[in-house]
Request: fold
Amino acid sequence: MKRDLPAMAQQNFDLVVIGGGATGAFIAWDGALRGLRVAVLEKGDFAHATSSASTKLVHGGLRYLKSLDFGLVRESLAERRVLSQIAPHLVHPLAFMLPAYNAGWRQRLILELGLSLYDILSFDRGFLDDPDQRMPGHKMLSRHKALTLEPSLAEDGLEGAFQYWDGQMHAPERLALEAIIGAVEYGASVANRVEVTDFMREEGRINAVAVTDLETGSNYTISGRLFVNATGASADQIMRLATGDTPRTIVRSKGIHLIVPKLTRDHALALQIGERHLFIVPWRNHSLIGTTDTPYDGPLDRVLPTREDAVELLDIVNGALPKANLKPSDIRHAYAGLRPLVETQGADTGSTYNKSRKSEVLDHEAEDGVAGLISALGGKWTTSRHVAEEVINLAERKLSVWVARGRTRWTPLPGGQTGQFATFKERALRRWADCDPKVIECLADNHGALMGQVIAGAQGDSALLAPLGDEMPETLAAVRHAMRHEMALHLDDVLMRRTGIGTLGRPSDAVLDRISSFMAAELGWSEAQRQSEIDNVLGRFVTFN
Ligand SMILES: Cc1cc2nc3c(=O)[nH]c(=O)nc-3n(C[C@H](O)[C@H](O)[C@H](O)COP(=O)(O)OP(=O)(O)OC[C@H]3O[C@@H](n4cnc5c(N)ncnc54)[C@H](O)[C@@H]3O)c2cc1C
Reply:
């Protein structure tokens, strides 16, 4: 992928996508696949904002059944199947346990009915080529069985547990990146670290945006026939810039996650805490705990969890799972993100927790007479591909062009062309038998069918394919590939989004030093620049000791 803003400024795109999170990435991929000339402009790095701060679940959202949001649940369950089909290396089934405490027969019956409905709404979950991706229906486990499977469960009042299945993303950042890579393969032009600062009009119609290259400070004008605002929690700011007003109010809610030593064996736990729920999810040999839901009106860049947020969440976990006995010093990593929730006019749904996660595609020409702009608002990671399909369907009508039918529903992402994933991994282990098996597994998980490119890029230098540490199967070969082919410009891009190195907490000084020196040699950083890259990364790791 080549970042070339001067070249982008010479073109007139069919579609200019503002925002390179999950929504913008899938819009770009869908549009490019259907033959549109697409540009993506991302202020930070691809998927650096909310898309990297989720619970990493590809899920129907069992709790939305309670609010009778059957449409959202069915859409999400259908998308769960689609994502596991098009990205089998990045989306996997995950077993959940929903324990029933002092529930009584009435509450258990309600849960049983809810989960049966969940099974019905995911009637097509078995229609997948890869048998490992097919999810069974739910079942009720006895108290004894539940405790045998997950001894960390609190025993007091436990009557049994429901077991059900949902999906998990191995690396959401890479899932979005693969949609960007796929778009580029089909002719899209993309740039990270470029901010849209203004809109320009001709005869009342938006025909260009002013942008600033945040790497160089240079300004450009990017022209297009149609613009899509896919800026997540910033969507109202972009609407205001374009329309002078904000036709939809975006309510922002902050959610934090904690990564701690592994609390469960194999299951994710879905715990009901009063009116709220909490997930404890196994992830990369740790437990990911999430999430909170508090109204937020602070600055939008780099939202971090506070000590207060973290301690409150730990207390809730310790209350629900006393055997965990977590202390602030157990937190290996903590991160926070903002949910952009679209305020439905006239509907007071109370807390942000109860606000709808439904997405909305807004045609500003019809809504407020601003021709040339569409906004894709709200939604879930899980439904971002489907939202993108709707945006391109609308773009097709607005542009009065005939484009090919949407194909992203069944076209594998670039790394997703693996066939049955377990067999793919076995073949990879045999093919590169001279490499450390942990390295091969890690490359297969992160890059899927593109892993051969990473290995080829090491050009026979076996040192580049050695693991970076005892518990760190990532390699300098992946770092080099990120810089040369995945538009990684900074240490933060490499550690947090191209590889998983920083996603379990602060890497050691030795690792930071080694990777930043390797990047400095490739990108020509001075020593001062290298140090400032390290300082920038360290700023995102909060400690709570
Ligand atoms: C705590 C939490 C947990 C969640 N858990 C889940 C989950 O488990 N499963 C699930 O399905 N969903 C989950 N979600 C929801 C999901 O993460 C979001 O729906 C999704 O990531 C939104 O993606 P997006 O691309 O719309 O927004 P973002 O990822 O925020 O992307 C918007 C992009 O626009 C860019 N941008 C902004 N302004 C400009 C500008 N002026 N110029 C250029 N670019 C700009 C930003 O830099 C940003 O990268 C969760 C959300 C939160 C907050």
